[in-house]
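Priority: low. Protein: E3 ubiquitin-protein ligase PEP5. Input follows.
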Amino acid sequence: MALQRQFNFFDKVELKDPEDPTKSPEIFQSIESNVATSGRGHMVVADRSGVVHIIDKNLKVESFLAYESGRITHMKQLRQRNILVTVGEEDNAVQVIKLWDLDKPDRVKTGPTLERSIRVQQTKDTFPVSALAVLENLSQIAVGLANGVVVLINGDLMRERTTAQKIVHQNDEPITGLGFKEQQKGALLFIATTSKVLLYNTFTKHTQTLDDQGGGLGCAVMNEASQELAIARDEAIFFYGADGRGPAYAFDGPKTFISFYKSYLVLVSPPNITTAASRQFGVNASAVSANDTTRLTIIDTLNKFTAYQATFSQGIRSVICEWGSIHIVENGGKVYRLDEMDTSVKLDILFKKNMYLLAINLAHNQKYDNASISDIIKKYGDHLYTKGDYDGAMGQYVRTIGRLEPSYVIRKFLDAQRIYNLTSYLQELHSSGLANADHTTLLLNCYTKLKDVKRLDEFIKTDSDLMFDLETAIQVCRQAGYYEHAVYLAEKFEEHDLYLTVQIDDVKNYEKALAYMRRLGSKEADKNLQKYGKVLLTHLPEKTTQLLVDLCSGFLTKAGSPSPTPGTVTPAGGQPGLNNLPFAMAGSPVTANLTANAISSPRVISQTVFQPKSKGGQGDSVKYSPPSPRTFMSLFVDLPSYLITFLEQVSANRWPSPSAQTNLTPAGASAKSPTNAGGRPNSIGSVNAVTGSKKAYDSTDRSSLGRSGLMSDQDMEERKAVWNTLFELYLAHNNTGKESMLGAADLYKKMRDRNINKEKCLRLLNDTEISYDMNHALVLCHLAEFDEGIVFLYERMKMYTDILRLWIGRDDTTKVIECLRKYGPLEPSLYPLTLSYFSSSPGRLTSATPELLKVLDHIDQQDLLPPLQVVQALSQTSVATIGMIKNYIGRRIEAEKKERAEDQKQIQSYRQESENKRREIEDLKTSARIFQVTKCSSCGGSLDLPSVHFLCRHSFHQRCLADSADRECPKCMIEQRTVADIRRMQEANAEKHDLFLSELEDADDGFEVIAKYFGNNTMAFAKLIDSSN
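Result:
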């Protein structure tokens, strides 16, 4: 990888001596450093005499003698512990490794404590150390020799007294670099020679060749951050990892030294000497004159550019990285510090050169926050936009999503008429979940403008989560005419209202809308049918009505839920399920005709129809509370026939009536009355027809009360509402209209429908389970001139006089006579009205003379009216003659004479009895009673003393009487106590005025009640009430 970009991101500052600011630091002037290292806040420099100098940040120096008879060749400052590792020569050029604890001063001599000294074992001749590698935990040290031998020293080097040394590599090529890479088991040791790069596994003892080219001395160094070995050759810098050779950076020219500082690679290029000389085992610093120019290059390995490059005229002795800077020590003793510029300064330089990609990478490497990086990306996008590279600019703006205000980008591309690029940006905005309703609208409009149906499908019909405002997307699709996409979105994300709106208002697909409602379940179907029911009924009346029936009957379930057993829908009329309805006429001829003929209400056709569920059915687990049918009645405003069907089915499903199975003869129907058990058939005064019906009603009422006790008040109100509506609809359909304009067939059909509706009305009226308002029903029947219903309600209300007046008003003599026969015994006031009706006109009297005579005979036999009232009723007109009632009056006078004679005789008998009682009482009070009884009234034996005699003329042995405080005659005691109880009860009743008034109101003859009270002497005990109090 060629490094073509070059910057100057470091500031060069020359260091001065703290004692004399006009001079370079004295320490570097006074010594000729042979090797240097750094770490833990100080520099460590060793000279050729074996002395180590420790320099702090203020350039203060502490020195100590490390090797008395030789020079130091290598040093390593550990990072984790303040341990300094040195390699130097002792007597006879023996290589010795020493471990110095810089935190622990020596007690005997100046300097730190020497913790350990290890001699490097060599086989024959002694060779200098050319490379050193130390593990931070001091468990292994690798030493490379100039003869190509690598010695590995193992053990706890700070504690163990002995160490194990092993030759792990041996070759004729000098060792130029070593480096450890730690792992869980053992460590990997990189070995660089002048011609090869090797990798030795200290755990498996295996060596592998990574490259057949090596590197020069000082040009192989380990990158502690990435755990890679870097080797600088003339043509490039190569990196090696455990897997082999990695990336390379092309940098032509010889190199004499490389080192790492943070993510930077520091290269030192030698003076202008021959390439062949640079490839030797090392370039001797003494061979370079003081005036030779050396070049220093700093490469940013992360961002792949040259961060700094400078030349040093006196050559470079050491490169030391510490205190956040790079320190360059020249051969002449001058020291320069290279300070890295702030990142903001670097970015400004890159901005001026329009190197935004590099600036973005730099910001990432410097751990800038996302907002700052987004601001750089925005500048890059603006730069590309200015150049006219709209695609590239949009690519950068997309990276700012979440940080940059979308309106900034949208406004730019709207002005440039770059809809395609804007579409891409809006797509990414939605993918990030940061789009609002306006962005969705704009994106969909872009799709529609571009006619890009494919991308619209990808955006809408994706399987990922919802990334846009759903309602807005559907609205835009509707406006653009993409109804299929709108329907897809609404159905996928269960926006039921929007789905139905599109299907009904836009697509006009009422079939799918209705099928969709059925799948939603009761709650959603209820809400949407209230909204769209009118439209659906207009276009699909049969299926919509069926859906409403299922909903209000409690049979509608969600798709996949258990459903009730399908049955057959029964429209308004005589279908198989009609007998379940309270208004069905079971067994009637009209009902039989309905199965074969069409009726006024239309037939509902549906594949999903249900009969009422029996208890324990398979749909019990999905029961719900059905909505009120009243909610949907207004939808049928122009469809009364379907409303009838709807209400009939709901009523049959929700409230199946047991009374519908009982075939009661409706009042007023033209049916013969049953035979009177005690009299002749159809005779006037036969009460069995009425009383029998009354008993049936009473029993039904009692059973209905038991059932209604289990029905809630709300359910009862619903049932009343359905009843009232059905009743009004039946009566409305019963209206004849203009029959003169109809043909024979239509007239026949209309008459048949009218009879059906009459039967249904009567069945409704006969439904005793509903406590409907009879006055309201009566008004409706009067308005519709429904005589059968009027008669039924009058009979229910016991308004028999009004029934008779109805038929009198209709001038229907036959009905009047029937009415008198049925209700006359219950309401005597009907007879005077009937007599007045018969005598109201000569023609009527002539035709009804036989019936009039029968009525008079019945009045006479039953003693229903006094003769005076009969005469008054017939004398209201001059039509009736005295001859017609002569026999009746004669019989009545004769009967009254006999009755008066019998009354006189009975009165005389009562008077005589009372007089005898008074004499007896007076005799007891004034005269002595002589007892001459000789036998005991109890045992019948001869009466002897002691004996007991009573004034009632009964005598007893004393032993035959029970011991009691009150001496009473055992024979008369029961009778006397009965009389006493009657008297006490009369006294108590004298104070019960409510009981007296109640009997007076309920009695047919009030005078008889008063006479009874006087006869029982109750009035004698009543206390007078003072009105003044």
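The CA atoms of residues 564 and 619 lie 5 Å apart. Residues 274-291, 560-621, 659-709, 1024-1029 have pLDDT under 50 and may be disordered.
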